[in-house]
Amino acid sequence: MGRRGRPRGDHDRRRGAPESGPAELDAAELVRRVRVREEAGERRKEAIAAVAAEAGLPKREVFDAVVAAKNAERGAAGKS
Question: Staple 22 to which of 7, 36, 56, 76, CB 3.0 to 4.6 Å?
C-alpha cells in the first residue's frame, strides 16, 4: 500500500496507456534495423536485443522476423 492508503501503482491505472509508445513496426522494418546494426559491426544477438528493446517487443519476435526473412531469401535464391 502506498502512503495514502491506495495500492501502489494505482495512479498508473488511472492514467491509462502512455500517450507515446513504441511505433508499430512490421517484420520488414525490424529486419532492416537488425541488418543496419549488423553492417555497423554489431553481433546479430546484440542487434536483435537492441531492436527489440527499441520497439518494445520480445526478442523472440524480432528473432523470428530475421529467421523468416533469411528463409525467404534462401527460397527466392533457389528458384532462380
Answer: 56
Three cell numbers at 16?
A: 491509462
Number of Cβ within a 10 Å radius of residue 49: 17
**Whole-angstrom distance, CA of residue 41 vs CA of residue 55:** 20
Quick one: the chain helix, strand, coil %, rounded to 5? 65, 0, 35
Q: Which tens digits make up the pLDDT trace of 10-53?
A: 444 444 444 434 557 899 999 999 999 999 999 999 999 999 99
The answer to whether 48 touches 59, Cβ cutoff 8 Å, is: yes
Share of the chain above pLDDT 70, in %: 70
CA–CA gap between residue 80 and residue 74 (Å, rounded):
10
Distance in angstroms (rounded) separating the CA atoms of residues 37 and 46: 9
